[in-house]
Amino acid sequence: MKPKTQIDIKQLVRKNILTMKPYSSARDEFKGEAEVFLDANENPYNSAFNRYPDPLQWEVKTKLAKLKGIDPTQIFLGNGSDEAIDVLIRAFCEPNRDAILITEPTYGMYAVCADVNAVTIQKVLLTADYDLDLESLFKQVNDQTKIIFLCSPNNPTANLLTREKIKTVLAQFNGLVVIDEAYIDFTSSESFAAELSNYENLVILQTFSKAWGLAGLRLGMCFASPAIIGILNKVKYPYNINLATQAHALEALKDVQKKDAMVAEITSERDALIEALPSVKMVQKVYPSDANFILIKVDDANGTYQKLTDQKIIVRNRSSVALCLNCLRITVGTPEENKRLLQALKDLSK
Ligand SMILES: Cc1ncc(COP(=O)(O)O)c(C=O)c1O
């Protein structure tokens, strides 16, 4: 079946990236079975880490592809999904000419990576209930716009963006649409991964940092067409995912149930917090959550943040962020941690 949205990747990618010759590592140039490896200037003496890792992480990708119902050639792995964000911008946006479009409020790294790369940031406010405002979005889009970043469930607001609205953006925008699904495991909503064959401009980000509980490993996933993944592979550092991370990810992927059990515990704790928080006097509003965190509006976010910090409880003060005046973002912790937070908020309300 023909995809609903087709793009000419050669038109979209930066010309120098299209024509450049990528670095070819020793591990790229020899792939067969051998006994004596004298090709990569490694140290021959025995250690768990004396050899360079697989530059394209095929073993991890093969396992991951099965789990996600896609092909290994549709996967890019990054040093966190933050690396994928940076590589996408570097590969597709010409510095001092092109733009990315972000919706506000949202995850901060899209703008930071654009700034680092001298790429213009086009900003569109979400609606009052934190959904996409399609009219304003399409008004902002122009010839400069190469990538639209949509975060769903969104950070810091915790809600999913309306699926049909995301599909409209995918269908009508001729550049890349990146859907950041860092928190997708905490919702019953389907990932957009199943839509890859429908939209050639679709790029999906997921991560091992949240549901898998492996933020310290730094492993992010990016799913897209093999053509887009090929471009990202051209730009990334040759050995961007180290051996320890690849080995640890393979172990984690053997036990998907462990991840599912953690997600079930966290979502049940989240729902309990959402039920309990409205009875706390200082809490004006508890926003719905499809993530592992909750956004709340309180009487005085700055004061509450400081007083919680004094009690060694750290939440994220989002009060200075667009549409989030007096809002705190609270990550769901263990039952004991959540109890302590709730008690502290109750005590501060007295
Ligand atoms: C929406 C979103 N995307 C990406 C990331 C970063 O993920 P990673 O740890 O894989 O770099 C975060 C981290 O908080 C996030 O909230």
From TrEMBL:
CDD domains: AAT_like
InterPro entries reported for this sequence: Aminotrans_II_pyridoxalP_BS (IPR001917), Aminotransferase_I/II_large (IPR004839), HisP_aminotrans (IPR005861), PyrdxlP-dep_Trfase (IPR015424), PyrdxlP-dep_Trfase_major (IPR015421), PyrdxlP-dep_Trfase_small (IPR015422)
UniProtKB keywords: Amino-acid biosynthesis, Aminotransferase, Histidine biosynthesis, Pyridoxal phosphate, Transferase
EC numbers on record: 2.6.1.9
Enzyme class: transferase
Residues recorded with modification N6-(pyridoxal phosphate)lysine: 210
Cofactor: pyridoxal 5'-phosphate
Domain Aminotransferase class I/classII large: 45-345
Pfam families: Aminotran_1_2
Reactions catalysed according to its record: L-histidinol phosphate + 2-oxoglutarate = 3-(imidazol-4-yl)-2-oxopropyl phosphate + L-glutamate
Pathway listed: Lipid metabolism; Amino-acid biosynthesis; L-histidine biosynthesis; L-histidine from 5-phospho-alpha-D-ribose 1-diphosphate: step 7/9
GO biological process terms on file: L-histidine biosynthetic process
Example GO molecular function: histidinol-phosphate transaminase activity
Assembly behavior: Homodimer.
Family membership noted in the UniProt record: Belongs to the class-II pyridoxal-phosphate-dependent aminotransferase family. Histidinol-phosphate aminotransferase subfamily.
PANTHER family according to UniProt: HISTIDINOL-PHOSPHATE AMINOTRANSFERASE (PTHR42885:SF2), HISTIDINOL-PHOSPHATE AMINOTRANSFERASE-RELATED (PTHR42885)
Official protein name in the record: Histidinol-phosphate aminotransferase
Organism: Pseudochryseolinea flava
Gene that this sequence comes from: hisC
